[in-house]
Amino acid sequence: MAKKVFISFDYEHDDDLRTLLVGQSRHPGSPFEIADYSLKERLGGDWKAQVKEKIKGVSIVVVLCGEHTDSATGVSAELAIAQELSKEYFLLKGRSDKICRWPKGAKSTDKMYNWTWDNLKALIGGSR
Hints:
This protein has 128 residues and is of the alpha/beta class. It has one domain: Rossmann fold (3-Layer(aba) Sandwich), CATH 3.40.50. The protein is built from 4 helices and 5 strands; from the N terminus they run E-H-E-H-E-H-E-E-H. Helix 2 crosses helix 3. The chain is globular, with a radius of gyration of 13 Å.
C-alpha cells in the first residue's frame, strides 16, 4: 500500500522539484502517493494550524532541499510541525549540480539524501 506523503519545498525557487516528485509518485509500483504539499499563498487565518492538519494526515514528510531552502520560512515551519507531530521525514537533495541548503530547524542528526529512485523507494518504503 502506498504511503501518503506531504512535500515541503521552497515554492519561489523549487516548484520544478515538486513537479518532478509528483511525477515519480505516478510511476507504476511507486511506494508513495502525494497527499498534499506546500502552497504559494498563505492559507487564510492560522495557516500553521491548517498545515498541521494536512501533515497529520500523511505518513511521511519529504523536504525537498534546494539552493535557498535555508531561507524558506514556510519550509522551516512545516519541518517544525512535522517534528512536533513526531512525523517521519527526510531531507532530499533536489539539485545534484548545486549546493543544497538545509532548512532551519533541521536536526544535526538529519541526513540529506541524494535524489535517486532507489533512495526514494527505500526512504519512503521504510527500509532506511
